[in-house]
Amino acid sequence: MGLDALLSKATPADLDAVIQVERHLLDVLQLVSAAVADAYVEEHQALHGQDQAARHEVLSALLEGQDPHEAARRAGIRPAPAYAVLTFALGDHPDETDSDVTSSVAARRKLRRIQAEIDHHGRAQALHALNPQGGLALLPVEDPEVALTGDWERLTGLVVRIGDRSGATVHAGVAATAAAGIAEAARQSADILEIVRVTGRPPGVYRVTDVLLDYQLSRPGAAREHLAGLLAGLERHPVLLETLRAYVAGEFSRRRAAGLLHVHPNTVDYRLRRVAVLTGLDPTCPGDLPQLRAALVAYDLGA
Q1: What is the rounded distance in angstroms from the CA atom of residue 175 to the CA atom of residue 147?
Q2: Domain around 245
Q3: What distance in Å separates the CA atoms of residue 20 and residue 297, rounded to the nearest whole number?
Q4: Which of 15, 48, 269, 277 fits a 20 to 30 Å CA distance from 182?
Q5: What CA–CA distance (Å, rounded) separates 139 from 83?
Q6: For residue 101, is it left (φ>0), alpha (ψ between -120 and 50) or beta?
Q7: Cβ(193)–Cβ(87) below 8 Å
Q8: Given this model, what pLDDT does residue 7 score?
Q9: Does 47 have pLDDT greater than 50?
Q10: Helices 238-249 + 254-261 axis angle, to 10
């Protein structure tokens, strides 16, 4: 409008003056746009912060076994009859290790994408406490058993989308329960995640049925201590432990283990022979492999 008013009365002789005025108008427009954007972002962050604080109250109440209804009312959400409880471990986005990008900014972007995906999946009723390395999320479900069986594909799809959108590796342990059992389900999902990471499983989401044997081996007790003790002879030989882990991760193939370790297969053979001497269990003997693998799981989980 200002430019139109100027041009309606300007002559060719006024060109320099029109340009100078237009520059002032653009400067004002820039200042106004920045002020409006700053105010919008500040207000949006304040509202988002209040909403997240209220949702954290609901999450805390569920984790502590308290009635979440009053906190849910303040948060404007409905407590679900049951939840799928996921514990996440998140890898870095490439930008987080790029010297040309501020790592904290890249981490916040990654986290916002993950939160948005979880909120969309939970139809704005999900609860989460996440940081760039991982955290906890509660997804409302109708039936805990169905969530981990009939609806399993939908849950695995969520974790795949989180990985795709965030550009990071995603490992997750999951347990499902009625609202009263959230605390125990959170502990179980964290235990599952620890097993998944210790045993070198690929990114994805895992139930207890996916790690059943290793989960049982991870329970404290005399059996776990005895199994872990079978590898006591390797404690002073970290290279042999690393080789054994690679051998197990490579499905007991010395060539795959060599590839994981970036060494010659003959080096793997030599190290496995040393493992056999120090433990009394031969990694190349099929009869010793189940006990050796169980011992490794018990040892790593007890470390």
Answers
A1: 9
A2: 222-302
A3: 75
A4: 48
A5: 5
A6: beta
A7: yes
A8: 83
A9: no
A10: 120
**Whether residue 166 is found in the same domain as residue 179:** yes
* Residue 106 shares a structural domain with residue 204: yes
Q: How confident is the model at residue 4 (pLDDT cuts 50, 70, 90)?
A: confident
Average pLDDT estimate for 70-91: 91
Would you place residue 130 in the very low, low, confident or very high pLDDT band (cuts 50, 70, 90)?
A: very high
Choice between 190 and 9, residue whose per-residue pLDDT is larger: 190
**Per-residue pLDDT tens digits for 200-235:** 889 999 999 999 888 888 887 787 888 889 898 999
How much is the mean pLDDT over the chain? 89
Please identify which residue in the block is written with the tokens 């044997």.
213
Give the pTM: 0.73
Query: Cβ atoms within 10 A of the Cβ of 57, count?
Result: 18
- The predicted-structure confidence for 88-124, as pLDDT tens digits, reads as follows 999 999 999 888 888 888 998 999 999 999 999 998 8
Say whether both 25 and 133 belong to one domain.
no
Model pLDDT, residue 31: 87
Location of structure tokens 């979440």: 68
Question: What is the domain-level CATH number for residue 295?
Answer: 1.10.10.2840
Structure-block tokens of residue 158: 């969520």
* 69 in the same domain as 13: yes
Residues 147, 176 contacting (CB under 8 angstroms):
yes
Residues 249 and 226 in one domain: yes
